[in-house]
Amino acid sequence: MKKKSGYSAAFRAAFPYTIPVLTGYLFIGIAFGIMFQEKGYNFLWAALMSILVYAGSGQYLAVNFFAPGVTLFQVIFMTFMVNVRHIFYGISMLDRFKNMGKKKLYMIFSLTDETYSLFFITKVPKDVDERKFLLAVALLDQCYWILGSVIGALAGHLLPFDSTGVDFAMTALFLVIMTEQWLAGKNHIPALVGLGSALVCRLIFGASNFILPSMICILLILLSFRKVVEEKEVDTNAP
Length: 239
Fold this sequence. Notes:
By secondary structure, this protein is mostly helical.
């Protein structure tokens, strides 16, 4: 079958797969925009941050960075701790991005939890160029986030709104993504390793310091038992 080489075909093929992200990003983007606007910033700043930073949980955290007394070191450290998981995302996608040329830089930048999830659970249509399809997914997802941020910032400016509890939207989205991946996949070893490592490190290091040790633990375990995980993956996918 001849592949459709145009970007328009790639975006048309990618859009249906990104609809769940569209619905999620609109809501949590709106929540971020509202929280950001409550700090007194114009909606254009919310849009600019979503374009240049584009890190959902990192942006939620950044809202609190504008409070007096927060040092540059605290900003750097907390941002690193919240987004350290993206290092491992990037490592796992090196082979897939290696032939994308200059676009590889944007693909690395745009690798959010939701986009990363789509890359793994979505089968690229056979008649569409894979590199253009992946780029379309990443661009669409970021556009959804930017749109949600702007809508939220404008709504927060025009309408009085109590943002108490709004930040839970990000946690809820993570739970939905995990549930979807669990139901879609037959091999649950990586998920169980992740949950077990997070629980043990949470008990040992506490709620404020368990993310980095958890990631290191997960990486070491999966690398050590890579063959076992891959064999299990083959067995579960066998007809």
